[in-house]
Write a structure and sequence with these properties.
Order of helices and strands: EHHEHHEHEHHEHEHHEEEHEH
Distance between the termini: 11 Å
Number of helices: 12
Largest sheet: 8 strands, parallel, barrel
Structural class: alpha/beta
Helix content: 40-55%
CATH superfamily: Divalent-metal-dependent TIM barrel enzymes
CATH class: Alpha Beta
């Protein structure tokens, strides 16, 4: 059988950035097309734009680059999604100055990239500080109540983002991050957002479960995309070890069952590799060799 899926990749290859920085030193300038074009030449038809670069490398979205991105979309049928900023963004934090600044950054990012009309915008409803608190509280019994104020702040931020952008809520996709899954789902349902499952985040237990198939089934009615990479949560010599953002085949991804489920639910969205290009290609090869019966294209 032929199984037509849209595989994509993120627009930032950190291996390439490190290589460029080593070569050019302080004169190195990130150029987004230098990352996108090799991915397209390698066969990827979908690109997820990392919008943190708006702030780290503001020159990289010049009018000329915008025209080239539009050309890729309109002339070469490349599809796009956008990952809203996550570096130092804290939509759920209790410090109102930080939370409001985070909302401002998200709103600004949406407006900057709306010229491309991405299929959806990936959002982390809760940030790194929320993840750190969640990780700490897991050590204590009956402590989850302390997370609830963060859920309220995240909800407030989402409400403000929707009001200030007037965007269709289904264009915002909540990602599975290191925070209790039930609260991320609750936020998505309360504001009629879409949902994105990050496979490595789930496989490494970040949302409180490692059951990727169950998570996918739970959110299927809101599901618009995946971040795809391997991960695991294991007990080794009595210690908890976890990993994510590793190539497929190096973690606990139930590959056959996962693709069977995608076929079962008739999934049409993109599967975006959050890996360097070399590791994404390695993962594609692994999929095709492991599941030859699907004839994935």
């Amino acid at each position: 059988m032929v199984f037509c899926l849209r595989f994509g990749i993120i627009s930032v290859d950190f291996n390439k950035i490190i290589e460029g920085a080593r070569k050019h030193g302080i004169n190195y300038k990130f150029q987004i097309l230098d990352h996108i074009k090799p991915a397209i030449e390698s066969g990827f038809k979908h690109i997820e734009l990392n919008l943190d670069v708006i702030y780290s490398s503001p020159h990289c979205l010049s009018d000329k680059v915008k025209d080239e991105l539009l050309d890729l979309k309109e002339q070469k049928n490349i599809t796009f999604t956008a990952h809203l900023p996550i570096w130092a963004i804290e939509l759920s934090w209790l410090n109102e100055n930080i939370r409001k600044a985070s909302v401002t950054s998200i709103v600004e990012s949406i407006k900057i990239i709306e010229f491309l009309d991405p299929e959806y915008y990936v959002i982390h409803a809760t940030g790194d500080h929320a993840s750190n608190l969640y990780r700490l509280l897991k050590k204590y019994k009956d402590s989850e109540v302390l997370i609830l104020p963060l859920v309220e702040k995240a909800s407030q931020s989402i409400e403000e983002i929707l009001a200030k952008t007037e965007i269709n809520p289904r264009k915002i996709a909540c990602e599975t991050v290191e925070f209790p899954l039930k609260y991320t789902i609750m936020i998505a349902e309360n504001y009629d957002l879409s949902f994105l499952v990050d496979t490595g985040h789930v496989l490494s237990g970040q949302p409180g479960t490692t059951d990727l198939l169950k998570v996918t089934r739970t959110v299927r009615n809101r599901l618009v995309g995946f971040h795809i990479h391997d991960g695991y949560l294991r007990i080794i010599n009595g210690e908890e070890k976890r990993a994510d953002h590793i190539p497929l085949g190096y973690g606990d991804m139930p590959l056959k069952e996962f693709f069977q489920l995608l076929k079962e639910i008739d999934f049409k969205g993109p599967l975006v590799f959050e890996l360097p290009l070399s590791e994404a290609l390695k993962s594609m090869k692994y999929i095709k060799e492991t599941l030859p019966e699907y004839n994935i294209v």
